[in-house]
Design brief:
Elements (H helix, E strand, L loop, with lengths): L16 H15 L13 E6 L5 H12 L3 E6 L11 H11 L2 E5 L3 H9 L5 E3 L7 H15 L6 E5 L4 H13 L2 E5 L8 H11 L5 E4 L2 H5 L4 E4 L11 H8 L6 H4 L7 E4 L11 H4 L6 H19 L4
Parallel strand pairs: 1-2, 1-3, 3-4, 5-6, 5-8, 6-7, 8-9
Helix pairs in contact: 1-5, 1-12, 2-12, 3-4, 5-6, 5-12, 6-7
Length: 309
């Protein structure tokens, strides 16, 4: 994975399909302890700059860097001068002198790009309103663990055409997975991301966006959902509820999918809204494996961009 040393991950499109495959293979080897890279010399320091709340991303990155002999500095936004108006460019140039890698969770993708433009160290997207690439690394690892392959499977994402839908479009297209997005009118993924996914797929897999949830789920191998109102959209939750209610993953929808289908959710979940507790805790759920794989997938990413493998 030496070709990833020093590189940013702002969206999954920053990787080639071959690099994505190698990252997933490395994540599997790290999980099984087949390989156990360890920093030599000065331990690397990971910075976390989070403008939004986080459980899985914050903890998995923190544990991952410590597993390879590094350390982490967690910088909540209100503890930095960014919250008092310091320009991102100035903050970025200073952090670049202290840290070896920086994971950022923010709202605007352009802020992430500004950090990347002003830092020599790798910048990792830990979630923006546009994309959540690290989550999809773990998702694809989980799918491959379950089915032994990626190409030729069908994944249906149900709900808001948000950052998760965007990253799943790209990740599935890069992996040869047929991807279907079922979302209400007005909540479809950004057209430019859909076109980007279709260009990546290049006819090797299907990229479909529809409002017809039953058609999207029929025969699908993987069902995926996310909350109906993401961080920053809480004021719209009540308005969104009746619009998205037909898009709930429940027992009836599961019956339309392939009988061996699995269910994924990036978490946190609102049980009884986008997914029922019955499905979430049922035998087809792989949600907890998926959450664990955040650690292994991000460890693979960290050791790659730091040049430890």
């Amino acid at each position: 994975m030496g070709e990833l040393k020093g590189r940013d991950l702002l969206t999954l499109a920053d990787l080639s399909p071959a690099e994505l495959t190698e990252l997933l293979d490395l994540a599997t080897k790290l999980k099984s302890s087949e390989v156990a890279p360890m920093a030599q010399g000065r331990p690397p320091v990971l910075g976390l700059l989070f403008y939004k709340a986080s459980t899985r991303t914050r903890l998995s990155f923190s544990v991952a860097i410590q597993h390879v002999g590094g350390s982490v500095i967690d910088m909540p936004l209100n503890a930095t001068q960014v919250s008092r108006g310091e320009p991102i460019e100035d903050t970025a140039r200073v952090l670049d002198r202290y840290l070896d890698v920086l994971a950022i969770r923010t709202f605007d993708q352009t802020d992430l790009q500004t950090f990347a433009d002003n830092c020599e160290m790798p910048i990792i997207n830990a979630l923006t309103d546009l994309a959540h690439p690290c989550q999809v690394l773990a998702d694809l690892q989980t799918v491959k663990e379950n089915f032994g392959q990626l190409a030729g499977l069908t994944l249906t994402y149900v709900g808001d055409g948000n950052n998760m839908a965007h990253s799943l479009l790209l990740g599935c297209a890069m992996s040869g997975i047929h991807v279907r997005i079922a979302a209400p009118d007005g909540y479809q993924p950004l057209p430019e991301v859909v076109q980007q996914a279709k260009a990546i797929a290049n006819g090797q897999s299907d990229v479909i966006c529809t409002t017809d949830i039953n058609a999207a789920i029929e025969g699908s191998n993987i069902l995926y959902t996310d909350v109906w109102a993401s961080m920053g959209q809480e004021d719209d939750a009540a308005t969104r509820m009746p619009i998205f209610q037909p898009y709930q993953i429940n027992r009836e929808l599961m019956a339309i999918a392939d009988k061996e289908a699995i269910v994924l959710h990036c978490l946190p979940a609102h049980r009884g809204e986008e997914i029922t507790a019955e499905v979430m805790e049922g035998p087809q759920s792989r949600i907890w494996d998926e959450a664990e794989n955040r650690l292994h997938a991000q460890k693979a990413l960290l050791v790659s961009v730091l040049g430890l493998v």
